[in-house]
Design a protein that fits this description.
Blueprint (H helix, E strand, L loop, with lengths): L3 H30 L5 H15 L3 E6 L6 H9 L20 E4 L7 E6 L9 H5 L6 E4 L5 H7 L6 E5 H6 L16 E5 L1 E7 L3 H4 L2 E5 L5 H4 L1 H10 L2 E7 L6 H14 L7 E6 L11 H19 L6 E3 L2 H10 L2 H7 L1 H57 L3 H42 L2 H14 L6 H44 L12 H21 L7 H32 L2 H26 L1 H31 L8 H12 L6 H5 L1
Helix pairs in contact: 1-2, 1-14, 1-21, 2-14, 3-12, 9-10, 10-18, 12-13, 14-20, 14-21, 15-17, 15-19, 15-20, 16-17, 16-19, 17-18, 17-19, 18-19, 20-21
Bound molecules: guanosine-5'-triphosphate and magnesium ion (MG).
Length: about 675
Amino acid sequence: MKMRKFEQQLQAYVQHREHLIVSVTRYQAWLDRYELNSVSMNESIRTMLETLRSDRITLAFAAEFSRGKTELINAMFFAETGVRLLPSTPGRTTMCPTELLYDQDGGNYIRLLAIESRLDKLSLSEYKQRSESWMQIDLDCSSPAQMQEAFKELIAVKRVSLDQAKKLGLYHEDLYRGQAPDDSVEIPCWRHAIISFPHHLLKEGLVILDTPGLNALGSEPELTLNMLPNAQAVLFVLAADTGVTKSDLDMWRNHVRGARAKRKSGLIVVMNKVDTLWDDLGSEADIDAAIRSQVDTTASILNVDESVIFPVSAKQGLLAKVKSDQQLLAKSRLIGLEEYLSTVVLDERQQLLVGSVVDGIGHLVNASWTILASEVGDLGKQLEEVHHLGGENQSATVKLMSETREEQNRYLASVDKFQASRRVFSSQTARLLEALSPQRTDEIIQRTKKQMTGSLTTVGMKRVMRSVFDELRDVLQEVVRSTEETRRLVKTIYKIFQNEHGFKEIKPQLFSIRKYQLELELLFEEGEAFRNSASSTLMQQNLVVQKIYDSIIGRARKVMEMAHKDAGMWRAMALSPLLRQIKDHKKMIESRLESLRKVNMSKEHLDARIQELEQAVAPLRMQYDELEEIRKAMQMDEVASDDMMTDMADEERDIGLEPLAAMNG
Ligand SMILES: Nc1nc2c(ncn2[C@@H]2O[C@H](COP(=O)(O)OP(=O)(O)OP(=O)(O)O)[C@@H](O)[C@H]2O)c(=O)[nH]1
Ligand SMILES: [Mg+2]
C-alpha cells in the first residue's frame, strides 16, 4: 500500500504518454483532413508514434553478489504477494540476468535462455526475437507459491568440465580464490530470463532488470553496453555491513559508472542492510549518526552526491510491508527511495518524453501553425483593405494595383532564385546521403574485418575496432563542412523571404553531424572502458571479446544508419514549409489583385468579393483553432528542442545574410 506514490506517479506518467499519443494522432488526422501531409511527414509521425508506444520505464539493479538486489526488488515491488517472490538467499543467488515485465501478447511465463547460447553468434536482442529458442514455464498468477517455485530456475546451476566452462567464457580464476578447481566447475544453467505476468506496475510499462553479481556484467556485454545505458535508472546496491569493498568499487568503476557515461542522472546508490547497524547501537540518534557517516564515506569513495545515496533495509522493508507494520516500514527507509524514484526519475522521464515529441515533430507542428496563422492574417488584412478601398477614389486603387503588380514581379524573381538554391540544396544533400550511406559503412566494416582475419587475438580485434572507428570518424568529419554549408543555405533561403517579402518566421529544420560524432565517441569510449575493465577477468577469452566488438561495431553501424536516415528526412522536409509559404504568398498576391479589380468594377462586385473573402476566413480559423488545441496538448512551448538549441548556436556563428546569388555559385 505504501507503493501508492510510485504507482500513482507511474499511472500519471502513463496517462501523460497516452495523451501525447492522442495529440500526435490528432495532428496526423488534422493533416489528412486538410490534405497537408506528405510521405516524409507521415514517416516522421509514424516514427514518433512508434517511439511513444514502445516507451518503457526500465529500472536496473546492479551490484556485487549478495548485496540484496533481489530482496530490494521483492520489497519495493512485490511485497503485496505476501511472499519473497524472487529467490534471495545468503551467498550467490541470482544466476542469470532477469527481466520482469508484462508481455501483452505472450501472457504469463518465465522464459529461459540456455547458457550454451553463448557459443552462438546471435546476440541477446536477436534471441529475444525468437521465442522458440527459450524454455518456457507457464505461471499461475493466482498462486504466489507456484510462481515462487518456478522462479527457482533463476538460481539453477550445473557442473560442467573446466574446458566447457572456459569455452563458454565462464571460468574465472577469482571465483576459486587461488584454489585450483576440480575437473568440473559449477556454472549457471541459464543465460537470461524473462518473466512476464500481469502485475499492475508491469502492466503500466515498468520493466525491472535484476542482475546477478559476480561478473555477470563483465561476461554479458549486452548488459553493460546496452541494457544499463538505456535503463531509466540504475540502482547500484551496496551493503552497510561490508561498506564499499574493492570488488564493489571495481564494478562501480568498470561497469556501472561507464555504462551511464551518457546519462549522468538516474544513477542511484542504495546502501542496503542498514538494519545490521541497528542492533549494536542504542538510540535512534546514534543509528542516524552511524548511517550518516556511512553515507558520507560512500559519497566520497564513489564520488557522487549524498542526495543520490539511499540507506535502506530491504529485508525489514519487505517484512514491514507484508505485516503492515508502519513503524518498521519507516525504520527501513524504503519510502524515501521509492519517493525519489517516483518524483525525480519519473518526472525526468516525462520531460524527456515531451522533449522527444518536440524534437521529433515540433518543427512540423510549428510550421503548420505559423503558415496557418499567416494565411488567416493575410486574409484579414485583405478584407480590411477591401472595406477601406470601397470608400476611396479610383486613382488610389489603380496606384495600389500597380504597386502590387510590381511586388508580384519582384516576388517571382525571388521564386526563380529560390528554385536555383533548391537545386543546390538538392545536390549538396545528395552528396551527403551518399557519404553516409549504409553501403559505404558496411564496406568499411567488411574491409577492415577482412584485413584483420587471421588475427583473432584480443589485440587483433582491438585493432579492428580502432580502424573501423577511425574510418567512420573520417566519414563524419568529411561531411561536417558541407553540412554546415547546407544549413547556412537553408537558413539564408528562409531569411530572404522573411526579410524581403515579409514571410512569418519559421525556424527551418536543421541537421547537424555533431550529434552522431558524439554518439560515436561515447560508444568508442564505452568499448575502451569495457576492454580495460575486462583485462583481469573473463574477458581475456576471445569469444567474449569478439562479441563485445561485434556488439560495439553493430551499434556504430546503427549510429551511421541513423545519421543517414535523419539526413534523408531533412532533405525531404527542410524546405517544405517554405515551399508552402511561397505558394500561399503567390496565391495571396493574386487574390489581392483580384480584389482590387473587383473594387474598380462596381459596388456589387465589391460586395460579392467581400463575401467571398469572409467565407474563406471562417474555415481557416477553424483549422487554426483545431491546430492550436493540438499544439497545446503537445506542450510545445514548454520544452526547448535540440533543433532550436543548435539553431541558436548557429545563429551566434552566422555573420549576416549572404545573398542568394552567392550561395548559388
Ligand atoms: N540484514 C539484511 N540482510 C539482507 C537485506 N537485504 C538482503 N539481505 C540478505 O542478503 C542476502 C543476499 O540477498 P540477495 O537479495 O539474494 O542479494 P543479491 O544482491 O540479489 O545477490 P545475487 O543474486 O547473488 O547477486 C540474503 O540472505 C538476504 O536475506 C537487508 O536489508 N538486511
Ligand atoms: Mg539476486
